Every structure is written in structure tokens, then in C-alpha cells.
Amino acid sequence: MSNWTPGKKSQALFAAAQKHIPGGVNSPVRAFKSVGLSPFLVQRADGPFVYDVDGNEYIDFMGSWGPLILGHNNDEIRDALVAAAANGTSFGASHAAEVQMADLIVDMMPHIEMLRLVNSGTEATMSAVRLARGATGRDKIIKFDGCYHGHADSFLINAGSGLATLGVPSSPGVPKGAAQDTLTAAFNDLASVQALFDANPGEIAAIIVEPVAGNMGCVLPNKGFLEGLRTLCTKEGALLIFDEVITGFRVAKGGARERFGVEADLTTLGKIIGGGMPVGAFGGKREFMKLMAPEGPVYQAGTLAGNPLATACGIAALTQLGAPGVYEQLEETGQQMERILREAASAAGETICVNRAGSMMGFYFQDGPVHSFSDVSKSDIAKFNALFKGLLAHGVSIAPSGYEALFVSLSHSDAVLNRARSAFMAAFARLKG
Ligand SMILES: *Cc1c(COP(=O)(O)O)cnc(C)c1O
């Protein structure tokens, strides 16, 4: 049972995929390389379930990497999509649903006074950084080790050995110049941020941070960390950018602003706001957003931006998330899932550290606490990989890497979680064997 392998159809399809698609995938993690496997290929998905081409059902805790907070194949989103498609797939011109979507976002996140829609989280962060540079006339930015902001040049940077060292590209093809303007600090370490400001006076345009880091499992901000970043940015004349591509509409209806009470100058959104369609957004204070073309000089554009199918799905998703009780239910489901992880590990005599913010969480094979990327890297990844395999064998699918978050959705009912509990119990129990 624990030596899970993909079914015959998945194997054949994946072999065919590799002929004309690099690595057989359109996004690297999908290849299951980090867990030493080849992937199952998906036929369809519904609610909390994903079905592969071989007819296997999995309870899914990946939610398409975060967007599907309402579950797969949500009725309202699908209906909205079908209705919108009857009017055409793209206009390349302004239309009513864009206005409605912008109003809806501002309504739920009032600290965003103006925003622009783009096609992905990567475009959102890239554009927000350009705006920050345009607004301040400075080139350098600070990011945090272990935070992911999409695949634009400025963000693919390692920390290097020292906290205050200049960035080194972590992918060939990223120019040294781009890397040198990205400084990296340690998450939850304000002193490492202060040191970068001291070493680069008047040169830093912005700090970009995931307010809850969701690309190294799940790492919460320590008390005072986000507040400290806010204070430093204000003092140094730099902009604070919250990359809420995961946390927006995930950790609270109003995102990190609501959950932690700290206000960024610019916020980037993605994932959930598209309801599964390719959408991103960046927005924030009017004084900065007015600098965007055509009102101002900072250029950014998109052929398919504000696409009518995408906005229809986004509106359907956000409308449902605005209903009363939604985030209470997500918190409860998150709590249940955390309990399952802890109980399954403890019953098997395994030590894990669990971090959680509402319906997103991460677990690490170590004592913890886990506050930063260097803490994360102390985890036993071999054990994670074995667990991942065991879970698949028992009909549960989580993200194929020990550095990813686990998400629950509104479709994860008590009955589904009970089934998941048995699978986690069995998969943890097998780790010893
Ligand atoms: C996923 C993600 C991005 C990139 O979004 P894409 O839509 O994949 O381009 C940016 N920032 C964060 C925090 C993310 O999790």
C-alpha cells in the first residue's frame, strides 16, 4: 500500500506529456520530482475530491495551490462562467463586470482604495514593485528568505550566506543587475531588515512580504514583526507591499489587514480572487495607484486583463465569501484539520510542528518552533516524502513538497474530514514500518 505509483493511464499520459512539454508539466512542482515520484493526471474534480484518469479518488488538501477556498467545481462559479461565456470570451475593452469586481474587492478590503486587475499573481507582484520604484525613484527592494512572489526576475533570489549580503540569482537567466537590487532578510527578524536599511540609505523602494508565509509551509508573523516593518517603511520612506496572493480572502475576509491590524501601502492579490481562473490584482493607496498609466507615468498593461470570464468567476467567488459565518466555518475546519495532524502524528509516535492561520497550515517533521526559512530547513524531508506517498495510497492528496501549505475549503465537511483522519492515521503509522 505504501509503495504508491501512478496508474497506467497517468503513466502513459505523463510519458506523452514529456515529449512536447519540458518535464511534462506547465509548472515545475506538478512533476512530483521533489517527492521522487511521477504524478497522477487529473480527470476532474468536485468539492473536496480530485479524480485521476485512472479512476482513483483523492481527498484534496491542495486546492489548486490555494485558489479553491470554496472547493472544486463550485456551482455558483461554474454557473457564472457559463453565463458569461454566452456573451463572448474577451473584449479587449472595458465592461461592467470589471467595475463590479473592483468595487467588491474595495468593499471587503477598504485599505485598497484603487486597484488594477492582471492575469496572475506574478504580474501583480511585478507591477506592484514597479509602482513602488516609480513612486520612490529608488531601485532596491527587500524580500524575505523563503517567501515566494512569483517568477519575475527580481524575486528569484537566494538569501546567500549572510543576511545582509546582496542577492544572488537562484535561476540561470536572471541578470545579475536584477538580483543585485533585491536584498534578502530573514522572516520574523526585524534586525536583519534594519541592517539592510542601514547599509543602503535612501536606496530601498519597498519591502515585499507574505504577511503569513505560505510558500515554506505556513509561517506566521511573530507579534510585532509586521508592525515593525510598517514602522521601518514609514521612517525610511519606503513602501510596504503585502503579497496577499495566498492570504487575501484566506486568513480573513479582509486579509492580513483585518487579521493583524497592519496596513500596507500596496497589496497584491491572486489565487482566490479568480475562483480558479487566471486572475491577479494589485492595489492600495490612491496616491500611489494614481501614478499608474494612463493617469500617471508608470506603465503596465494586459491584453486579457479584466477578462469577462475571469471577472465573472471572481465575482461569484467573492460574493460567496462575503456571506456571514464563512470565515468562522473556515476557522473551525482549519482547527479540525490541525487536530487530525497532531493526533495522527502523536498516535504514531512522530514529532511534528504545526503552524496554522485559519484554513491554511503547514506541518514539519521536527520539534519547532518554526519562525523562519532556516527553521523550516531543519525538517525531515525524507519523512515528509514517505508520508506523502502513504497519503496517496490511502486516498489523500496534499501538495507534493514539504515546503508547501495545506489548505482546507468550505467543501471539507465533517464526513470528509473523518475519512481524511483515517488516512492520516494510517499514513503516519506506516512511517515506522
Ligand atoms: C502563487 C503566488 C504568487 C504567484 O502567483 P501566480 O499566479 O502563480 O503567478 C505570488 N505570490 C504568492 C505569495 C504566491 O503564493
Plain-language structure description:
By secondary structure, this protein is α/β, with parallel strands linked by helices. The protein folds into 2 domains: 8-73 and 326-430, Aspartate Aminotransferase, domain 1 (Alpha-Beta Complex), CATH 3.90.1150; 75-321, Type I PLP-dependent aspartate aminotransferase-like (Major domain) (Aspartate Aminotransferase, domain 2), CATH 3.40.640.10. Helix content is 37%, strand content 15%. It has a 7-stranded mixed beta sheet with strand order 4-12-11-10-9-5-8, with helices on both faces. Strands 1-2-3-15 form a 4-stranded mixed beta sheet. Strand 13 and strand 14 form a beta hairpin. Helix 3 packs parallel to helix 10 (308-321) and helix 11 (326-347) packs parallel to helix 14 (414-430). It starts with 7 loop residues before the first helix and ends with a helix. 50% of the residues are buried. The site of pyridoxal-5'-phosphate has 15 residues, from helix 4.
| Average pLDDT rating | 95
How many angstroms separate the termini? 12 Å
Bound molecules: pyridoxal-5'-phosphate
Please tell me how large the radius of gyration is.
Answer: 21 Å
**What order do the strands of the largest sheet run in, or round the barrel if closed?**
4-12-11-10-9-5-8
Sequence of secondary-structure elements: HEEEHHEHEEEHEHEHEHEEHHHEEHHEEH
Per CATH, the superfamily of the largest domain is Type I PLP-dependent aspartate aminotransferase-like (Major domain)
Structural class of the secondary structure composition?
alpha/beta
Text of the CATH class of the largest domain: Alpha Beta
Low-confidence stretches: 159-165
Count of individual helical segments = 14
Any idea how many domains? 2
CATH architecture of the largest domain: 3-Layer(aba) Sandwich
Global morphology: globular
Indicate the proportion of strand residues. Answer: 15-25%
Q: How many beta-strand elements?
A: 16
Biggest sheet character: 7 strands, mixed
